[in-house]
Write a structure and sequence with these properties.
2 domains, mainly alpha, Arc Repressor Mutant, subunit A, 78% helix, elongated
Length: 195
């Protein structure tokens, strides 16, 4: 990497670092691109060379942190054949993250619902994990897809219940998700026993 590319990478990293700190200290909405530029020691125009707008910066900080949260739990959970246990593992990892990044989560989720993106991508990834687990025990693909859609609807229902007041750390949250998905746990166990 040449010197100019290194400098560009360093400037981008500095903008992200000061922005993340400012977002946590003052909130996302009150923190302007002008303030972020001042804190990073760059011109406002330089900010826009690196990020199209503040939301792009928010997204990058959020998804970098989410990747870190997911990577930090790799190996902590043994793979589970149960689709509902798989969703519980996802929730055990991501719900604390959503809570820690509460304002980010609300911003990203709102943008995702309006523009598409995060919500759809995350749902598709989780759905694949659920469908595959059902199909491995002999559930046909159509039924596995229906089960997966319902399990994920329960996940997002609990997510949306937590979002307004940032209740992701509430001890009852995971128990509620598990209870909502109990019929699918029974269906999975029945299919497993019939094999």
């Amino acid at each position: 990497m040449n010197r100019r590319a290194q400098q560009k990478t360093a400037t981008r990293a500095k903008i992200k670092q000061v922005a993340q700190r400012a977002f946590f200290e003052h909130g996302i909405e009150p923190t302007t691109t002008r303030e972020i530029s001042r804190l990073a020691g760059v011109a406002v125009g330089t900010f826009f060379v690196h990020f199209a707008d503040k939301l792009e910066l928010v997204r990058e900080i959020y998804f970098d942190a989410m990747d870190g949260a997911l990577k930090s739990t790799v190996g902590l959970h043994s793979p589970t054949p149960s689709p509902t246990e798989y969703i519980q593992q996802v929730a055990k990892t991501l719900f604390p993250f959503y809570g820690q990044y509460g304002e980010f989560t609300r911003q990203i989720m709102l943008d995702s619902v309006i523009q598409g993106g995060f919500h759809h991508q995350q749902t598709a990834s989780m759905k694949e994990g659920v469908v595959n687990r059902f199909m491995e025990v002999g559930v046909d693909q159509k039924t596995a897809n229906i089960f997966a859609e319902n399990i994920l609807a329960n996940y997002w229902l609990v997510f949306m219940e937590c979002l307004p007041e940032n209740r992701f750390a509430d001890a009852q949250v995971l128990a509620r998700l598990e209870t909502l998905n109990l019929p699918f746990t029974v269906s999975f166990n029945n299919a497993l026993a019939a094999r």
